[in-house]
Amino acid sequence: MTHFFKFLTLATLALSATATLHAQGLTLSPSVSLIHDTPLQRPVDFIVALVNSEPITHIEVQRETQRVLQQLALQQHSPPDSKTLKADVLEGLINKKWQLQLARDMGVRVEEAAIDQAEQSIAAQNQANVTELRRRIEADGLSLKQFRSQLRDQIVLQRLREREVAAHVKVSELDIDAYLREQQTNPDLSKLQLNLAQIVIPIPENATHEQVQTILARANTMLQRARSGTNFEALGQEMADTSFGVNGAPLGLRSADRYPSSFVSATRQLSAGDVAELVRSPSGFHILKVIEKNNLALPSALVTQSHVRHILIRPSASLTDTDARIKLSEFKNLMLSGRAEFARLAHDYSQDGSAIKGGDLGWANPGMFVPEFEAVIDVMKPGDISNPVASRFGMHLIQLLERRQSAVSTAQQREIVRAMVRDIKLEETYKAWAQTQRARAFIELREEPQ
After folding, report:
1. Can you give the residue ranges of every domain in the chain?
2. Going along 172-327, which residue ranges are E strands?
């Protein structure tokens, strides 16, 4: 079986009004107050926009605004002013509406098994089973029908994007080279993480030229000692002035844009353990040592690999998704009871090239499988056997055999960079495609009634 194509994470499937989830360890958000009809007070509703004759209502905008505010609070971001927020929310609903219409016209469909799988993945990432997930959702005021409908919409939008955008995005070797050059010469400071230690040799206010030269000579002497291997913190403790913090102590890992630009420039070409040239500031001379340096826009030298095997059953005219799911569940029960071995069942029943190897897919780097497959692996422990997992390739039963930290070869690093560049191109291509398609839609904005 070839490696599955990675596109969007399952985190995008969880953008519901009361079940806001976080990527990299999704968790259910606290409940929020929704707008409900009651016999005593029925909310006033009206149409705020038409998208190809389909309405968007005032209450829809209010509910989506609540969801966005909740997300911003969880991310500790300040919301924009109410007018800007309302305009942004309405624009988002309009874009969602016309894309769903386009998907419907193109015949994009979502089978119930895919929604089941999305629900199971969200439950697993929230360390809950499906029953508990549903209980939390309903406790937050959202019905199961509404939640699954929202999941369906998100899967439809994902498949539309894959069909209309992803297929047209290509990444060449020249694209990879250009990206690497850009990150090495002009990195994105928000993705560059630095942990620096500093020693400050202060310059008194109104110091004379001769005094500054004397201090500079002392700073250069300390710089040479730091570069010759003298313990940096011990060297820093020779400075009696502690107004700049503990001299020689690490300042902590933070994004480069949170450091003075002069510090970033001085350490731009350095590696961990290197000591920079002196940096002059109004406070004095700074000796900087790079303790740790990570560029999140570049692949790490180490990667966590997963060794997995699977059994793949492809639904057909004579075998429905439900039948395939039941069959794989029976296989799992046989293995858990000790009446069958995974490798033998995979050899006899798996409908892909890995069958001859007992379903073994070998060692895989992050991002080598499709999101629905990888999202399940991410929450498994070695030895675990998953429940049936639906993907575009069919229905899988997955076992995680082991994990390891592995050095990334140059060729593997380039493949990781290829995925990064692809994501960038996907976003750019999607924006251009969405702009063109939106221009073809009939959109009428309506004033709020007085």
Report:
1. 10-169, 188-295, 301-407
2. 192-202, 254-255, 279-281, 284-295, 302-313
CATH number, domain 301-407, options 3.90.1310.10, 3.30.565.40, 3.10.50.40, 3.40.50.150: 3.10.50.40
DSSP 339: S
Radius of gyration for the chain, computed over Cα atoms and rounded to the nearest angstrom: 28
pLDDT in tens, the chain (450 residues): 333 323 333 333 333 322 333 322 333 333 333 334 444 455 678 999 999 989 999 999 998 998 889 888 877 788 888 899 999 999 999 999 999 999 999 999 888 888 887 888 788 777 778 889 899 888 888 899 989 999 999 999 989 998 899 888 999 999 999 998 888 777 778 888 999 999 999 998 889 999 999 999 999 999 999 999 899 988 988 875 545 445 788 888 998 989 999 999 999 889 899 999 999 998 899 999 999 988 888 877 778 899 999 999 998 888 888 899 999 999 999 999 999 999 999 999 999 999 999 999 999 988 788 878 888 898 899 999 999 988 878 899 999 999 998 887 888 888 888 988 998 999 999 999 999 999 999 999 998 887
Q: What is the pTM of this model?
A: 0.57
Let me know how long the chain is: 450
The CA dihedral of 359, 112, 118, 51, to the nearest 10 degrees, is 140
Residues 6+ apart with CB under 8 A from 30: 70
Amino acid at 374: E
d(CA 225, CA 231) in angstroms, rounded, equals 9
Among 342, 321, 320, 323, CA closest to 331: 342
Question: Under DSSP, is residue 333 helix (H, G, I), strand (E, B) or coil?
Answer: helix
Nearest to 145 by CA among 134, 160, 133: 134
Q: CA 96 to CA 154: how far, in whole Å?
A: 9
Specify the residue for token string 């060297």: 235
Looking at the DSSP assignment, which residues form a beta bridge with residue 165?
Answer: none
Rounded Cα distance, 1 and 393, in Å: 10
Q: Which two tokens stand for residue 57?
A: 């209502």
Which residue, 371, 393, 219, 243, is CA-closest to 310? Answer: 393
Q: How far apart are CA 433 and CA 244, in angstroms?
A: 52
Helix (H) or strand (E) holding 391: strand 389-391
Q: CATH number of the domain at 10-169, please?
A: 1.10.4030.10
> One fold for both 10-169 and 188-295?
no
Could you tell me where the beta strands, DSSP code E, fall in 218-377? 254-255, 279-281, 284-295, 302-313, 360-364
What fold, for 188-295?
Chitinase A; domain 3 (3.10.50)
